[in-house]
Design goal:
single chain, 1 helix, 3 strands, 3-stranded antiparallel beta sheet, alpha+beta
């Protein structure tokens, strides 16, 4: 299934940065083309189903918001 996403592109020093606007994922490259390709690779990894190699430990935590 294909889905279209929108990428925002800008330059930071010698790097071109591509950020997906629908999903908080970004990547970079030496050119806009490379940054977009790297962003596509990052999106593939993001949407790939997880493959557990071990059972994760899940623990509740508590945080006092007034301490922030």
């Amino acid at each position: 299934m294909k889905r279209k996403f929108t990428a925002s592109l800008w330059r930071e020093g010698k790097w071109h940065v591509a950020q997906c606007l629908e999903v908080d994922i970004a990547s970079q490259g030496h050119s806009e083309r490379e940054a977009l390709k790297n962003l596509q690779d990052a999106l593939k990894l993001h949407f790939a189903p997880p493959i557990a190699t071990s059972v994760p430990k899940v623990r509740p935590i508590e945080f006092d918001l007034s301490a922030a």
